[in-house]
Amino acid sequence: MAVRPRPTAGRLAALLAGAGVAHLAVPKPFDAIVPRALPGDPRTWTYVSGAVELGLAAAIAHPRTRRLGGLAAAGFFVAVFPANVKMAHDWRHKPAPLRVAVQARLPLQAPLVWWALRVAVDGGRGAVGADGAAADRP
Phi-psi region for residue 35, left (φ > 0), alpha (ψ -120 to 50) or beta? Predict the structure, then answer.
């Protein structure tokens, strides 16, 4: 049976932790994509987003909170989609390679939501056979 790796909780936690650190360490680029409809200072939203990403990473990394962390991460990925749309709109006059890169981010949000939901459902461990059945469950 052909086996393909299942997206892991560890990798999702690492992705979220990296994004969280980036938001806190280099906030200026993130400030620019905070939707203007949100009240308050964009920097506050950038820091809040970074802190949430770090919290989600911690929740996903721990088996006891992984299900809730995965569900919350899926919701978070949906919630930040408007910032990606704003960025695509704001960058519509940038050079073509930058426009393409930022527009390519939009459909990539769906696999992130799927990945987070998958982690929530099965803990993000193991592998899936070609028929979709678990191949190496503990």
Answer: beta
